[in-house]
Amino acid sequence: MLNKKIAVPITITILLAAVVLPIILTGYLALNHAESDFAARDYARAAESYKQAAQLFPWRDDLWEKAGIAAARNGNDREAIQFFKQSPTLSAEGWMLLGYSYYKGGDFPSAINALDESLRLEHLPPAYDLLALIYRQQKNWTAERDTLVNKLRQNVGDAYSQYRSGLLLAVLEPEQALTHLMLASTLNPEFDPAVQTMRAALNLSSTQPDASQQMVTLGRALGLVQEWDLSAAAFEKAIKMDGENAEAWAWLGEAKQQAGGDGRAELDRAVILDHTSVVVRALRALYWNRQEKYPQMLAEYLLAAEYEPTNPTWQAGLGEAYTRRGDLVSALAAYQHATELAPNESTYWRSLAVFCAESGVHLDDVGLPAAQKAVDLAPDDSLALDALGWAYLSSGRYSNAEQVLLDVIKRFPDQFSAHIHLAMTYLAQGNRAAAFDKLTYVQSADPNGANGVMAGQLLEQYFP
Questions:
Q1: CA-to-CA distance for 426 and 436, rounded, in angstroms?
Q2: Runs of H (alpha helix) within 395-431
């Protein structure tokens, strides 16, 4: 009898082992595969293996999170979110990757909540970066600033965060902006040109008694450093301070155009407020130029030149407008008038030279002398040197053009227009191989820029 009583539990144990042991072995095999695949960065297979292990080992709280991390790193956001949701707890990394998955799916509120949870557990720099990016895309400048402030508490030496904080503060609290900007420039000299632009604007704005105009000054500087969303925020703040500030309205229209909007309503409001403002007229001229409505562009510059007859900028604008309309005689006169008003400024001599080279008019008696004058006044200006090379090319002086343009690209390798003009020189000389090399270089180096597009067009034209 004793043997029978013992035999029953043994039989049950054997039966349970026969059922459970394969499950456990399968689970461990899946887990081993998952860890091996994860180490090999095969995240798709790792996610699937972690999922299988999590289903077989429900007492392992960490496996669903690991499956989510693998899926997130594989870019499978929906699957990652599903796995993370099944995990009873998440680490800082898990919360961060959950936030990233929500962000990629366009669910910003859920992404922000997940990133906040991540940062509550651990100060992960990528979590701060993503949170700041989300606030930036939402144009929630205060929240972006606060996020960067918190990040800088952990790492004061983060150059980009210092720079971005300085830009934000230029709109939110200008008196605090310069400290961050200067520190960014010290940490990374690449920020120095933009920092110097902002520094000059901050210093100028601090001397202006009108708060609205101070914001316009800062907004213009933000535009110069290609921060047009923040620039628009500055102009909007200027308008809140003074709704009758015509320049603020006009610059807001420009900022909206630069950010991909229209801006016409703001420009119309500006001209109603002050129809004699040359700034308003000039910005409206830029708008009509982009719309390819050149008669309206010309009309705006004519008014600006009437209101400020001694300003060479408006004469150069007139030259461009006349050129767009095909009136080369009037264009030449306008460009020449600009040089008469500012005989010691290289910019206007260069504009005259470029006009002659581009239009093929008065190259010997006007274009080349203007290009040489531009270089004499600014011998280290890459644009002036490029204009001289272009003038030589247009006038058929290919050897001179090649010499000048080779010097330009040696000294200023990122002056892509010089590469294009050199390629055109090679084509004129019959050196197709050298021209092809230059054009393909520009197309590769500046794929989305105007020079890259031009290089592509020339390649299609000459190397079909």
A1: 9
A2: 398-411, 416-429
Instruction: Give the CATH number for residue 36.
Output: 1.25.40.10
Report whether 280 contacts 267 (CB < 8 A): yes
Taking only the tens place, the pLDDT of each residue in 5-46 is 544 455 545 444 444 444 455 555 656 666 776 777 777 887
Q: Alpha-carbon distance 454 to 55, whole Å?
A: 58
Residue 399 forms part of a structural domain? no
The structural domain count of the chain equals: 1
Task: Determine the pLDDT at residue 175.
Answer: 95
> Which secondary-structure segment (H or E) carries 259?
none
Instruction: Give the pLDDT score at 15.
Output: 42
The answer to whether residue 390 sits within a structural domain is no
Q: Are 423 and 456 in contact (CB under 8 A)?
A: no
Q: Is residue 184, in this structure, part of any structural domain at all?
A: no
* Mean pLDDT on 63-73: 86
The DSSP line for 130-184 is HHHHHHHHTT-HHHHHHHHHHHHHH-TT-HHHHHHHHHHHHHH-GGGHHHHHHHH
Q: Using alpha carbons, select from 27, 75, 30, 77 the residue that is nearest to residue 49.
A: 30
pLDDT at 32: 65
In what helix (H) or strand (E) does residue 124 lie, and over which residues does it extend? none
Q: Which residue has the tokens 């509550």?
A: 120
- Give the confidence band of 2 by pLDDT, cuts at 50, 70, 90: very low
Tell me which amino acid residue 132 is.
A
What mean pLDDT do residues 366-390 have?
Answer: 97
In a domain, 23, yes or no: yes
